[in-house]
């Protein structure tokens, strides 16, 4: 309901408006009346009504002057004037102070209702608009972190427009970046796929929030600047390097240089993330620049330094002075390297395979100008080549094809050249194991060892990994060999052995069905019963009945 104050020096008009108008029916509450401008102004200031209905001509303070004062303190209050037919000049002045409407004396109820309807409608429209603006302002406030992040991304990505940059910094509450002399650091989580892939989306967001908080707190404590997440696992810090004031010259030798401050900050970030979040990080440091438009250069240098973990290893603080310039490849992959690895794979020689790989990667490590891509391509080529050996040995099963496809993904996820060497070596040595067994004719010997192990341990919760460990091979090749040599999978053979043992146990009526289930390695009697029926054609209880 809207509120109304009426001001008129004529008692008959004031009494008529107060007593004979159904204000409540129009959605209006009459909260006060006054008979002159001075009293009316004081009342309006105190009650803050939505609508003021006032006479134009009044002694002392007239309606025009009163309305102007009301407008100054209550800009949203709507003012409607009451005017006589001879008050044309007054009315013109009234309309100049943005009165919403006027009524001529004598006042007619129908006209009064029409004017008040327009006034209340205008008040409702303005209230909705203010609500919408307030809502938009709230949403804008909520969006400020995202807007800051977008702006900071544009700053380091060479997309910043110098026009109105100070206004943008003020709007985004980033005025600390109005200074000069900046330097960029890049903090990259090591082994980011392993760190993030095992987490839920909520946990990823929580980790990101925590990492940013730790980095920002350390920046605030030791230097000045701001940090943000560029992409999952990569955080960027824009730091302000301190400059000595003229009055600080005395004792300046005790003040740490920007380089020393930066090194201490980077060490603090690395150590705190390790201590509190068990995260290993590599930190790249760019060179100092003197303006925001130059920040992309410092970022590029910092990211380039961090990328050198491919050669120098993880959990390091790397700066531009650690980079080696190399415009061209020192070593290109030669066909003879492939031939030597192929020979080692075909002969099943693990040591020779590893030796050849180490020599190849030692050469690739010299190609620092090319980054990781060249070495990854070499690794993919070697893995593809090992598939040729498997085809020659008739060992390219569906499972092996899936493993090869997964290897292509894993190669691209390795973060250092040593990680890539270890992964590639482990993959190729599995091929060596298979090749050696097939060519030595000892595959049947391995199969017998597998059968013996299953016969001894069928009552355990055996996995392919357990069986492989028992015969000193990888799970992949144990499964592959067994399938090729026997025509059935490890799981099928293990199930067959267990069911045969269960048949023997069922011959003794003293053995309860659930005891038989547990004795042959199953923990779920219902599952055991289904497997038993699938293989024998009847349930364990029906099988026992047949024996009577």
TrEMBL record:
InterPro entries: CdaR_GGDEF, CheY-like_superfamily, Homeodomain-like_sf, HTH_AraC, HTH_AraC-typ_CS, Sig_transdc_resp-reg_receiver, Tscrpt_reg_AraC-type_HTH. PROSITE patterns: HTH_ARAC_FAMILY_1, HTH_ARAC_FAMILY_2, RESPONSE_REGULATORY. Residues 3-120 form the Response regulatory domain. The modification 4-aspartylphosphate is found at residue 55. One of its GO terms (molecular function) is DNA-binding transcription factor activity. Residues 448-546 form the HTH araC/xylS-type domain. Gene3D superfamilies: 3.40.50.2300, Homeodomain-like (1.10.10.60). SUPFAM superfamilies: CheY-like (SSF52172), Homeodomain-like (SSF46689). Keywords: DNA-binding, Phosphoprotein, Transcription, Transcription regulation. Pfam families: GGDEF_2, HTH_18, Response_reg. One of its GO terms (biological process) is phosphorelay signal transduction system. PANTHER family: ARAC-FAMILY TRANSCRIPTIONAL REGULATOR (PTHR43280), RESPONSE REGULATOR (PTHR43280:SF35). This is AraC family transcriptional regulator.
């Amino acid at each position: 309901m809207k509120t109304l104050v009426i001001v008129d020096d004529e008692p008959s008009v004031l009494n008529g408006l107060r007593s004979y108008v159904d204000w409540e029916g129009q959605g209006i509450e009459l909260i006060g009346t006054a008979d002159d401008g001075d009293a009316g102004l004081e009342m309006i200031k105190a009650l803050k009504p939505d609508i003021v209905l006032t006479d134009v001509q009044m002694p002392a303070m007239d309606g025009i002057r009163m309305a102007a004062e009301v407008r100054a303190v209550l800009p949203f209050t709507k003012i409607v004037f009451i005017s006589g037919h001879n008050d044309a000049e007054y009315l013109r002045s009234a309309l100049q102070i943005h009165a919403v409407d006027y009524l001529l004396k004598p006042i007619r109820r129908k006209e009064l209702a029409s004017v008040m309807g327009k006034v209340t409608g205008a008040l409702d429209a303005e209230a909705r608009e203010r609500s919408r603006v307030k809502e938009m302002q709230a949403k804008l406030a909520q969006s400020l972190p995202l807007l800051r992040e977008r702006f900071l991304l544009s700053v380091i990505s060479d997309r910043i427009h110098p026009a109105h940059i100070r206004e943008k910094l003020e709007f985004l509450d980033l005025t600390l970046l109005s200074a000069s002399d900046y330097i960029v650091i890049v903090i990259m989580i090591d082994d980011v796929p392993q760190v993030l892939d095992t987490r839920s989306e909520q946990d990823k967001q929580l980790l990101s929030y925590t990492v940013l908080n730790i980095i920002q707190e350390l920046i605030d404590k030791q230097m000045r600047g701001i940090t943000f997440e560029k992409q999952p696992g990569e955080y960027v810090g824009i730091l302000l390097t301190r400059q000595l004031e003229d009055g600080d010259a005395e004792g300046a030798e005790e003040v740490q240089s920007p380089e020393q401050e930066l090194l201490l900050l980077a060490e603090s970030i690395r150590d705190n993330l390790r201590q509190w979040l068990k995260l290993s990080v590599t930190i790249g440091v760019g060179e100092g620049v003197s303006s925001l438009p130059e920040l992309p250069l410092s970022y590029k240098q910092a990211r380039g330094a961090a990328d050198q973990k491919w050669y120098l290893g993880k959990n390091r603080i790397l700066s531009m002075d650690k980079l080696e310039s190399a415009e061209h490849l020192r070593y290109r992959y030669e066909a003879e390297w492939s031939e030597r690895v192929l020979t080692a794979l075909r002969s099943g020689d693990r040591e020779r395979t590893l030796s050849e790989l180490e020599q190849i990667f030692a050469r690739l490590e010299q190609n620092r100008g090319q980054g990781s891509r060249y070495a990854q391509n070499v690794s993919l080529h070697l893995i593809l080549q090992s598939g040729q050996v498997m085809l020659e040995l008739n060992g390219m099963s569906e499972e092996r094809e899936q493993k090869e496809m997964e290897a292509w993904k894993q190669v691209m996820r390795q973060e250092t050249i040593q990680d890539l060497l270890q992964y590639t070596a482990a993959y190729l040595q599995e091929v060596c194991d298979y090749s050696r067994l097939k060519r030595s004719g000892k595959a049947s010997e391995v199969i017998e060892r597998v059968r013996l192990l299953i016969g001894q341990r069928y009552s355990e919760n055996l996995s392919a990994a357990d069986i492989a460990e028992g015969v000193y091979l990888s799970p992949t090749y144990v499964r592959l060999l067994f399938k090729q040599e026997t025509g059935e999978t490890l799981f099928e053979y293990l199930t067959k052995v267990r069911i045969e043992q269960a048949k023997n146990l069922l011959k003794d009526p003293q053995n309860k069905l659930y005891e038989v289930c547990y004795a042959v390695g199953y923990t779920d009697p219902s599952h055991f019963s289904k497997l038993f029926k699938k293989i024998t054609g009847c349930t364990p209880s029906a099988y026992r009945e047949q024996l009577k």
